[in-house]
Amino acid sequence: MNKRERMLTVVIALLVGYFVVDRLLVVPLTARFAALDEQVVAARQRYEAARVLVDNAQVLRDRWQAYQQVGLAAEESVVRIRVQQNLTDWSRQAGFDLTTCTASRTIKGERFSEVHFIARGTGSLRSVVQLLASVHTSPFPLRILFCDLVSRDEKLDVLTLGLTVSTICMPEANGSAASVAMTGGGS
Amino acid sequence: MLRTRAVPAAADAEALGNMLRLGIERDFPGRSRDWTFDYQLGAARDGVSDCLLVATRSALLAKIAQVLTAAKVRLRAATPTALVAAAAVEPARPCLFISHAGAELLLAAHGGWTTLMRLPVDDSVLESRQQQTALSGAVMRALASQDAGMDAVSNQDAGITLLADRSIGDTHLRAVRQALEPTLALRDGGTVDSAAALAHGGPSVDFVCSKLAAAARTGMSRRARLAGYAAAAVVLLLLLVGWRWWSASAELDRLRDAYAAIAAQADALDAVRRTISDADPWYRQRPGYLDGLAAVSQAFPVEQRIWVTSLRLGDDLRGTIKCRAASKETMLACLKAMQASPALTDVQLRDWSEADRAAGIVGFEITFTCTGAPPEPSG
Question: Any idea what DSSP says for residue A73?
């Protein structure tokens, strides 16, 4: 075998060796390392997220207690009466003529039951703004979903207001579970 | 090819070999692989010995071995013929050895050989008068270039011993002697049967079984070294890969253990966090309906020729306003005014129609989104 043939043989052997090593060793090894790295990254993210939760347990506890203190009721009937009563009171205080205030539907969620109310009435722009301000600063969880204002004349003296609001109640079981989590798990 | 080196007389064979190998690498950098070396030690004096380092081309040896192998003859030893022939001269003194292959000059000092030179004459020196004259000149030049040679020339009593291989006839030897005698003091050393002398005493210098064989096999050892380096690199690479795998696995285990320690607590807290997050829209002040209404009322132009018939605003602060205007220009002016408001975005004219063709009154509908930012106080 002359020098050129030897060199060709060596080059071919190197190429074949490279491809064999690449296919049998490098590629599988790289894939396994990549999978391991992904597992490490996922485990680190999961651990750090859990760590943040544990570190902020006191903040969550305070916030949950604050929510509970701001009128989170357990019974749907209680919230129905409370919303209707309050909307009636706020309308009277604002000089708004509330003609209808009914619970339209209840959506049972995983954690809360959401109760929708439709209120209609007429009043001046001033009374409408005051009523909306009362809803806006409600002492219990209340949220405006839609607000329709229709003017009867060009001077805006009488406005018809259609208001869709929503409130929530938390069944006793969920509230107890959360409380247990806060007191038992958060300490 | 040769060199003379002064080496410690007490040095053992291994130390001497290493010493000479270092010298070879230093004196013949990069060429030592092409040569096969051996040495012959001279007599010791004052704790120092003169060492005659002899070399021949490895390619020549290989070719000889190849030819012999082809003839089914095993090469057992290879040595300069002149050294074998001169071994018969006691004590060592300058010799000129003539054979059919040419002429070689050996110089001695302190009882040991210090120089072995192949003289630049071809194998016709036995017949060619011209070559014999050239040999005379070559001997003189060689002697003049060596201290030991100068001693031989100046000491006419000593002279140079003329040795010849036994295969050379007397006629040829006489012719050579006559050619050299006018310029050199010659002593007759007679003829030597080199092959018999080699078989009898064994060579002091042997390129086949060199005492510096390790140096001659530098190429092999370098290959072995390279293989060793490659193996070490592979082992190192495997160790690195293993260490990387181990460290990643250990990190994964550590993170899993750490998570397992707080998993129950974290799951419970996460449920509470999601509950709080879901309840947020009912507790937070946003969306600010009053802010949204204020933004719309500020952006809406106040003039007699346009008025609102209805306004609808959702909890996502997206709204629709239905209006009537005295003319199309007024409608477009209203649209521009609302689009210019920083508190409103995505202001678009959805629909318009002529509500009262005779009076030129148009009805139209504009959709918008409140940014949620509190409106600027009106000046």
Answer: B
H-helix or E-strand containing B6? strand B2-8
**Pairing relation of β-strands B361-370 and B344-356?**
antiparallel
**Inter-chain CB proximity A72 and B314 less than 8 Å:** no
- Assess contact for B39 and B83: CB atoms under 8 A: no
Q: Considering CB atoms only, which of B248, B252, B314 is closest to A146?
A: B314
Q: Taking CB atoms and an 8 Å limit, are A44 and B315 in contact across chains?
A: no
Question: Chain A partners of B281 at a C-beta cutoff of 8 Å?
Answer: 143
Task: Of A48-52, B64-68, B310-314, give the range with the top mean pLDDT.
Answer: A48-52
- Whether the link from the prior residue into B80 is cis, omega within 30° of 0, is no
Where does chain B have alpha helices with state H? 13-27, 58-70, 81-86, 129-144, 147-154, 170-180, 194-201, 213-216, 218-283, 289-299, 328-340
Minimum-distance CB partner of A60 among B245, B272, B279: B272
CB pairs under 8 A between A and B: 139
Find, among A72, A55, A70, the residue nearest to A174 by Cα: A72
pLDDT over 50 at B47, yes or no:
yes
Residue B153 reports pLDDT greater than 60: no
- The model's pTM: 0.49
A130 touches chain B (CB under 8 A): no
Residues 74-103 of A with CB under 8 A from B: none
Q: What is the DSSP string of B21-74?
A: HHHHHHHSTTTGGGEEEEEEEEEEETTEEEEEEEEEEHHHHHHHHHHHHHTT--
At A138-157, the pLDDT tens digits run 888 888 888 888 886 655 56
* CB contacts, 8 Å: B271 with chain A: 177-178, 181
Residue type, A139: P
d(CA B32, CA B220): 13
Mean pLDDT of the region B115-138 = 75
How close, in Å, is residue B262 to chain A by CA atoms?
Answer: 7
Q: Interface pTM (ipTM) of the complex?
A: 0.74
CB of A31 within 8 Å of a chain B CB? The answer is no
CA dist list (Å): B243 to A39, B246, B255, B310: 17, 5, 18, 72
Per-residue pLDDT band at B89 (split at 50, 70, 90): low
B268 alpha-carbon distance from chain centroid: 59
Q: How far is B349 from chain A (nearest CA, A)?
A: 19
Closest CB from A63, A109, A132 relative to B289: A132
Using one digit for the tens of pLDDT, what is the confidence trace for B288-333?
677 777 778 777 777 667 888 888 888 788 899 888 888 888 888 8
